[in-house]
Predict the structure of Catalase.
Amino acid sequence: ETHLKDADMFWDFLTLRPESMHQVLYLFGDRGIPDGYRFMNGYGSHTFKLVNAQGVAHWVKFHYKTNQGIKNLPVDRAAELASSDPDYAIRDLYNAIEKGDCPSWTFYIQVMTMAQAENCKFNPFDLTKVWPHS
């Protein structure tokens, strides 16, 4: 009604939507706020179906991991940038590329056969679940 920020509403939203919890743990955990796009990994939320040349289908999840290493901003610096330079992340990416310091990521997929999905102990299509990493 007032459109004022309300910490209770923020936490109510998160606790009532379990699909948000994984992201919240990242934000409030050691990973915190990335120091721009170059220093963050990316993970696909959804499970996709890929079919190979032989017509065999598999379920997959996509991941890309930064080759620059993880780097985060302290909360006070992030707050400062949010007000003084909201385009910090895109500007940092552009400037790095312009200088020839092109960032890179390694792309990975996790693969699950149809049989593995049927026998999985959790729902592999549930956004709140993380597939085991090996």
In short: Residues 88-98 form the longest helix (11 residues).
